[in-house]
Amino acid sequence: MKAGANERVYKMSFARVYPHYIAKAEKKGRTKEEVDEIIFWLTGYNENDLKRILEDKTNFEDFYNNAPRFNPNASLITGVICGYRVENIEEPLMQKLRYLDKLIDELAKGKPMEKILRK
């Protein structure tokens, strides 16, 4: 991805994309709670944090840079999302963003939560 395109994504509010994550999951019979569980596992945020992030329209850059505890097992997330292998994305912030995309994709494809959460 070009740097300019990345910057546009980083400045986008998480609240703008969050409903799409939920819709993608629910369309395939999964739940908002499962989407939230994935977000909490990946970032270390909790329910109150997420509520504040959505209300404040926190952008993706701040969402990831201020994550309380980015999961060390995130490096176990592999595969292709949006035409890119997540494990080969060199830009750290974009990689974190694509990790979440990949996990939501796995949820929508019916993978069990213990596999999604790399347990």
Report on this structure.
It is built from seven helices and two strands, in the order H-H-H-H-H-E-E-H-H. It is mainly alpha-helical and 119 residues long. The model has no long low-confidence stretch (mean pLDDT 95). The chain has a single domain, classed as uncharacterized protein sp1917 domain (Helicase, Ruva Protein, domain 3, Orthogonal Bundle), CATH 1.10.8. Helices cover 61% and strands 3% of the residues.
List keywords for this structure.
mainly alpha, two-stranded antiparallel ribbon, Helicase, Ruva Protein, domain 3, 119 residues
Layout of helices and strands:
Elements (H helix, E strand, L loop, with lengths): L2 H9 L2 H14 L4 H12 L3 H10 L3 H6 L14 E2 L2 E2 L6 H17 L4 H4 L3
Antiparallel strand pairs: 1-2
Helix pairs in contact: 2-4, 2-6, 3-6
Protein name: DUF2200 domain-containing protein
Pfam families: DUF2200
Can you summarize this structure?
This protein has helices at 3-11, 14-27, 32-43, 47-56, 60-65, 92-108, 113-116, and strands at 80-81, 84-85. With 119 residues, the protein is mainly alpha-helical. α2 (14-27) crosses α4.
The count of helical stretches stands at 7
CATH architecture: Orthogonal Bundle
Would you count the extended β strands for me?
2
Which CATH class is shown? Mainly Alpha
Shape: globular
